[in-house]
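idk why but the lab printer keeps eating my pages so im just putting this in chat instead. protein + zinc ion:
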Amino acid sequence: MKKSHSLIALGAGLMIALSGGLVLANWRMAEAANGAVRFARPNYDAARGGAILDLQKYGALGDAKRLAGLSKNLGACHDALAAAGVDFTIAQPEHEGACGYDEALVVDASLSTWKAPEQMAMTCDLAAKMHLWERHIVIPAAEKYLGSPVKEIKAFGTFQCRRVAGHARLSEHAFAKAMDVAGFVLEDGREITVLKDFRNKGAKGDFLREIHDRACGLFDVTLGPDFNADHANHFHLDVGGQYSCR
Ligand SMILES: [Zn+2]
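predcted complex ->
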């Protein structure tokens, strides 16, 4: 049994105690706990039918109602990730002064590898939107412009206790609701970076500009090199609830 499953079971136990139980989480728990954990209530969310956003469907990008549900229903969000084949580990809650999170997870496996200098804890709705962006926008755009799928998404990170540069308020990074994406490694070995290639007049630039612009329809805030010099080397993508596309 993989270590991540037992951690998921612990996290799922807490989550289920709060939300009332979910089919896929139940399945994972049953596997991890060998029947030792019992559920007090049935799965009302799943019983409603169609409540879970199918991240594998392209139409999920335009399903505003269920996209909003990802942030309001943690269980449905976990189920959506699991159903799409995303492997994840529930993170322990983290608090550092005014920063931190009660719920977050680490994506162990998605379609490509999400790589950063440190392990990336992120809220479930951020992970789900990252997966949607990867699946329906980034990978198809890489194939369209560059003729190769994406092997790796390179990021600077997600959670960091800090303020928005030049402002008093905390960044969405302070709550694990933002990811800074620096570039991509393609299956054929080529590397595309926001820093070097965003202004490229050819296919590399077309790829980066398209995935940036389309991120605006998915994330709450999308910032890139056109915003300011702080974002010359990455896309800031967040689910903090404000809206900006720069
Ligand atoms: Zn950022």
